[in-house]
Amino acid sequence: MRRIAAKYLYTLTSAEPIVDGFVEVDEDGLVVRTGRSEAPSAEAEWYDGALIPGFVNAHCHVELSYLKGRFSKGTGMAGFIDQINALRDSSTRARRVSALKAQMDLMWNAGVSAMADISNCDESFEVKASHPMYTRTFLEVFGTEPEDCPAIIEGVRDLAAKAHSFGLDAAPTPHSCYTMSPELITASSIAGLKSGFLSFHSEESPEEEEMMIHGSGPMWENRRAAGMSTPPVTGEISLKYFLSRLIAGLETPVEGNVLLVHEVCLSEYGATIARRILAHPFIAVCPRSNQFIHNALPPIELMRRSGIPICVGTDSLSSNDSLDMVSELFCLQENFSEVSLGEMLGWACRNGAEFLGKSARLGTIEPGKRPGIVLIEGLSEEGRLTDASASRRLV
Questions:
Q1: ∠ CA 309-310-316 to the nearest 5 degrees?
Q2: Has domain 55-323 been given CATH number 3.30.10.20?
Q3: pLDDT tens for residues 173-202?
Q4: Pairing, β 373-377 against β 390-393
Q5: What does CATH list as the number for 1-54+360-395?
């Protein structure tokens, strides 16, 4: 039996920490007991920091890890897409696999116990299959031409079969409104929701909204210059368009856990219709990625009012400087100081586990669970994050 104590223990059964708390775990990492230490100075293993359950990185593209440091910042979404297209095939498979493995190891050691990962190919499968981190792989599809839809769906089903042969939880998922024909959004969503899970890039930038509402702007011109079909100009927000493509093939409320990723342009109207149409909506915020690409941040206060559970992701190293969850939380704290550390940790641990359907094991520190025990050091005297804060796995 191992007893670990710290200045703060966030079990995340509530947003408030246990001051001078302890957790006892067995040799397999099973939580046996939690409580408040009567004599903190006498604890054999005591830390000046916060104990938390393992993080859940709710949105990552780990297979893009080889692109670290190669992208220009502040280009907007159209400029970012141009860079992805130019650099995506700029390294060997062996180097790409090595880079993604290194990043998964870094995340694990920093306390990430589970990850919702986006994949466009099979390069991460073998690493994920042998890694201690739990992953659910979302096999992302693209395709702007309606006639290509059947072949794309057949291809992603073959990729899913390969992922399953490695023992991975994996299923198709649509990418975004602007990279897919209406038919492909519906078909890939239906295929993905057979697994019970979907992840969708939604309202990531003002450029996306301008494209969908008005049929203009940099992303519209980007698509036309590339000779691609453009999405229908609906005069409505892109989130409503996505939801309309779901109900074109599925009954409402749409069952399954649906993760709306980014939502930088979320409105009260969008949140309302999402809650009406989706049985189990979630939002994943990736604030440093949003700053990296177009110097924007998600409307956190609106999201909190909406009641839709918020999760936290890192996105990829093509649009971020690291895949560090504490840095994402510090960014949120610096820009939304009214949100407590306990509430943010709930987003980054408990809500992510709920989205992945892993709440029975992950997300909170409770007897009977194996969430991993993580230490955050470098807190302020008030128990807030600082620019020196960092996390490391203890269990």
A1: 140
A2: no
A3: 999 999 999 999 999 999 999 999 999 999
A4: antiparallel
A5: 2.30.40.10
